[in-house]
Amino acid sequence: MPQTFQQSLITEFRANAGKVGGPFEGTDLLLLTTTGARSGKPHTTPLGYVRDGRRLLVVASNLGAPLHPDWYRNLLAHPTVRVELGGEEFESIAVPAEGALRDELFARVVAEAPGYAEYQGATDRVLPVVVLELPDPDAAAPPIASLADKLVEVHTWLRGQLRHVHEETEAHFAARAGHEGDGEPPAPGLGLQIRQRCLAFCQALEFHHTAEDGHMFPTMEGYHPHLRDVFDRLREEHRSIGAVQSALADLLADVAIAEPYRFRAELARMTEELTAHLDYEEEHILPLLAEVPWPPAAA
Fold it and tell me: Reaction catalysed (predicted)?
């Protein structure tokens, strides 16, 4: 799709709550904003999608070209994406389906949009099917009125993502153990579901701790110099956790996690250290932030 036409489609989409005319009139479209794998800059791409229950399916067809589209390579490097769907906008973790699940979902897509079968027939590469989960309509977000509320929201997300990765990892090892002795080879490495969730977690954690070290802690320390030992401890824990995060990031560099046992050990370290750190930070920092309004007042 030419860049100028793509930008005009994006502009029309946003101006009309997801409705567009021309060749895409009546087509189910969303806008997917990814982070550039190399540039780190946001890139927005209009994509067709198929709804499958509480998830959206998008196919990295690239019109049957021999290479994956840029947006697909971007989400492998930065799994957290922004989705615009009509008047709705939300963040999601993009997870390419694998194996039998990919085949099942691709068949689901082709049943609704047969053109994807033609794209698959035009190339030797297996067209990736990417799953984007819709927000849970029953998960009402608590009101955010203070910086303490915002910090709890971030910590809750980090704890939840870490718990998901841990549960999925243990389920993988349980399934692996269940295959022993039945003649089937054990699963080699860990899949994209675990990789994408853990990579999104690691990147969010690094951003959060960098922001605390660079902005929040120095500002708070200026108002509360008697708590210097608390902030020194928190910064030291950031460094220790950062070393574990770096070890995990190294293991997540490839599409497949080739060292599952090492990954499992590093994930256990992360769970232990981060849980203790968040508990300590909330005990000492939350009372100081309860009276700080969020969002901050305009200067």
Answer: oxidized coenzyme F420-(gamma-L-Glu)(n) + a quinol + H(+) = reduced coenzyme F420-(gamma-L-Glu)(n) + a quinone
Question: How far apart (Å, rounded) are the C-alpha atoms in residues 189 and 259?
Answer: 6
Give the C-alpha separation, 122 to 126, whole Å. Answer: 11
Q: What element of type H or E holds 236? A: helix 228-251
Contacts 24+ apart (CB under 8 A), 292-295: 292/146, 292/147, 292/148, 293/145, 293/146, 293/147, 294/144, 294/145, 294/146, 294/147, 294/149, 294/150
Nearest 5°: CA angle at 277, between 149 and 286?
A: 25
- pTM of this prediction? 0.91
Spatial separation of the C-alpha atoms in residues 255 and 157, rounded to whole Å: 24
- For 151-160, b/e burial (b = at least 16 CB within 10 A) is bbebbeebee
Assess contact for 45 and 56: CB atoms under 8 A.
no
**Structure confidence by residue, pLDDT tens digits, 177-196:** 776 555 554 455 688 999 99
Q: Is the peptide bond before 295 cis (omega within 30 degrees of 0)?
A: yes
Structural domains of the chain, ranges and CATH numbers in brackets: 3-133 (2.30.110.10), 147-289 (1.20.120)
Q: Measure the CA–CA gap between 24 and 19, rounded to whole angstroms.
A: 9
| Alpha-carbon gap, residue 143 to 154, rounded angstroms | 13
Residue 31, helix vs strand vs coil: strand
* Residue 249 to residue 263: CA distance in whole angstroms: 10
Q: For residue 57, what are the β-bridge partners?
A: 50, 131
Strand partners, 127: none
For residue 193, is it left (φ>0), alpha (ψ between -120 and 50) or beta? Answer: alpha
Q: Round to whole Å and give the CA distance between 72 and 51.
A: 19
- Tens digits of per-residue pLDDT, 59-107? 999 999 999 999 999 999 999 999 999 888 999 999 999 999 999 999 9
